[in-house]
Write a structure and sequence with these properties.
This protein has eleven helices and no strands. The chain is mainly alpha-helical. The longest helix is centred in the middle third of the chain and has 37 residues, at 161-197.
Length: 326
Amino acid sequence: MGDVPPDEDEIERQNKCLEKCRDDFLAIEDLWTQLYSDDKATVEQVLAEFKKAKKAHVACCADCVPRRRRFDDDAKTEFEVEGITFAGTGAGIALGGAIAFELEMPVVAVICIALGAGFEVMAFRFRSLNDDPFDPNFTRLPTPSFPKLPAVRPVRKGVTSSVAKAANAVLANQAKAIGLLDAVITALNRADTAAKAGDASAEASQVKAARDFAKEAADTLRDALSLRFSLASMWTGPGLDFTVSDQDAQRVRDDTIINGFPRSLFDTLKKLGVDQQDQDAIVQKTTILLGKLQKFVRFRDLLIDRNLRVAEVRLAAALDRFSQSQ
């Protein structure tokens, strides 16, 4: 089966992808220009960030090449739009982690950073479903690999054994979703390569595997709210549930953007199976979203945020449609 020219739908998708790359590039430049104008960043920092932004922009545009698609237009829209909701939640939770570090609540900070990273990775994986690069191992069906993070341990103040157990359950749910999404992506990459090679049998096997993984991923997303609700219900008291003024939150936000994210964020991303290039992309997106945050939202409120739940349900529905397609 030879290459075929992209259809109008795919050309439109490419154009939208390129526009988004452009908008993100400009957003990063605008953010650092504003930080410099506010005397919060040096010219050397700004120029270094401009250089990183340009590199990320080139990589982003390179990923916008038209390719074979397996999802309908509605699903592609859900992956992009609701993925942003996931990323925004992740940015807000990660900011809470940075604030917790400043308040000398290290275990709380680690929990927030880990959960925030999980949402960021899931958002990135959903966006990746719109970009299917080729994978030469198309004769082998993928096996999901679920990332493992260090277990949350109870401490004397705040994080009781019940809280630790609930936090670990949420983290395990995120890890399962990430592993299944990775498997969907791998299977579709291999299906496209099989199609290019003219191996219809291998293509059909890979697509079937992707559908099965998608169904499991949809079920995992539907399970998530109950787990987060349990954690939120326990997230009370001075050792856990903190609040700060919007002004203080913005100060920590700016410090985080200028001086870098906590090391634990990068350690978590690595444990979640994110390579360096994708880490850079995730950090850039998180930086953009942090720059837009104006108000501090408590961690327990983010856990049960209705917009997040709507995004989960819509993403699950998109995966269900794909799993049932023929």
